[in-house]
Amino acid sequence: MKVRRYVAQNMQEGLLRVKEELGPDAVIIHSRKVRPKGIRGFFLPPRLEITAALESYSGNDGIMEKLLLAEVEKQLRDGISEIKAHIDCLASRGEFPREYGEDESKGFINWQKKLEQQELFPALIQDLLEGIRSGFAGEIQFSEGIIGVLLYKKIRRTLKTAPEKAEAVQVFVGPTGVGKTTTLAKLAARYALYQGERVGIITIDHYRIGAVEQLRTYAEIAGLPLHVVMSPAELGTALSKLQGCQRVLIDTAGRSTLNTIHLKELVAYISRLPAAEIFLVISATTKSGDLPLIADGFKGLGYNRLIFSKLDETDSFGILLNGIHCTGLPATYLTTGQNVPEDICLADVDKMCALILGEEK
Ligand SMILES: Nc1nc2c(ncn2[C@@H]2O[C@H](COP(=O)(O)OP(=O)(O)OP(=O)(O)O)[C@@H](O)[C@H]2O)c(=O)[nH]1
Ligand SMILES: [Mg+2]
Asked: Nearest bound ligand to CA 281?
């Protein structure tokens, strides 16, 4: 029996060569996709390896079996060393391409659509994809999977997170209804219950009906002192009453960025504070177009960290990158539901990246 191996672009070409060389009686005993050797091989479309056999005489079944077995063994060995080389190469590059051989422009168009669905700023999408295209032009063939890996690396570098500052005073500012009070309650409970800290709460939101009651309920459940402050001058008094606390959390009234009078009132309070960690709370459901308005509108309050809330209420997460890009500030927390204190976690770059790329829900 003659056994031959052929490497072809596709099955049609392979069959033609088998028939040409071994004749019409040849049979295909195995076929598999293989990649050209070397690093470039991982980025080129796979080729087809075909093993064909021609039974030229009615020989001994045992011999045929041995030949076939030897061939299969060889293929397995080749396959294993190829996979090993592949893994070594990917590990050394810190990457893992997921798919191969897709048309390049189709890959870029698909990613553009996916990032648009995530409501990433169009200029950011352009920057990311153009950066990838020009950064590796001519070096590799861009499959959708490869573009995904490169996007992951780029977005990961752009996203910024930072733990809490060491400041004892934390303030929560942002538009109406984004979850400032709920987030404050989650953190207050966690500091007190999980970290054993002495925590005090101040609210300067006496504008909205029910706002104080909402916070008082949380404070009472966690057994924490609450002070309601009616004017900037009273803020100092409240802070001195909470001097024994390791952390003081301050809730503010939700404000529209278009109402400059309301924003100035808030500045009057915040300018009275000692060094503080000021969180701008941004709901993940915010329209991308409104984000620059919010980032700009609250600038006067000197916010220095971001919290993205309500991640559970959307399936587009471009706002995470948009927000960090447009404020230049790191994210510290993500909130994911209404449960106090459970639905909050530290902002994590990998998780955020996976959300933006649609790999995690
Ligand atoms: N789904 C979801 N709902 C949330 C989250 N955080 C807060 N909420 C809900 O959003 C609503 C408004 O939350 P608040 O904490 O009162 O928001 P606020 O920013 O303090 O609102 P104002 O003080 O009126 O500006 C409440 O029903 C909360 O339970 C979250 O992460 N996910
Ligand atoms: Mg509130």
From this structure: 1
Which among 79, 70, 87, 68 is positioned nearest to 32, based on CA atoms? 79
Q: Which residues contact 355 (CB under 8 A, 6 or more apart)?
A: 311, 317, 320, 361
Out of 93-97, 131-135, 325-329, 342-346, which region has the weakest mean confidence (pLDDT)? 93-97
CA 350 to ligand 2 center in whole angstroms: 30
Instruction: Give the residue-averaged pLDDT of 238-260.
Output: 92
Phi, psi dihedrals of residue 66, rounded to the nearest 5°: -60, -45
Pocket test of ligand 1: the residue of 182, 184, 286 to mutate, having most ligand atoms within 8 Å of its CB, is 182
Residue 197 pLDDT greater than 90, yes or no: yes
* Atom of ligand 1 at shortest range from CA of 208: 24
Gyration radius from the chain CA atoms: 31
- For residue range 206-227, what is the model confidence (pLDDT) as tens digits? 878 888 899 999 999 999 999 9
Question: 103 pLDDT exceeds 80?
Answer: no
Cα separation, 219 vs 205, whole angstroms: 15
Q: Are 158 and 125 in contact (CB under 8 A)?
A: no
Strand partners, 54: 2
Ligand 1: which atom is nearest the Cα of residue 281? 19
Distance between CA atoms of residues 27 and 29, nearest Å: 6
Angstrom distances, CA of residue 25 to CA of 3, 19, 160: 13, 8, 64
Picking from 264, 259, 248, the residue whose alpha carbon sits closest to that of residue 203 is: 248
Rounded to 5 degrees, φ, ψ at 215 are: -75, -35
Q: What is the pTM of this model?
A: 0.73
**What's the one-letter identity of residue 334?**
L
214 close to 206: Cβ distance less than 8 angstroms: no
Q: Mean pLDDT score of the chain, rounded to an integer? A: 84
The matching CATH number, chosen from 3.40.350.10, 3.40.50.300, 3.40.50.10610, 3.40.50.720, for 169-356 is 3.40.50.300
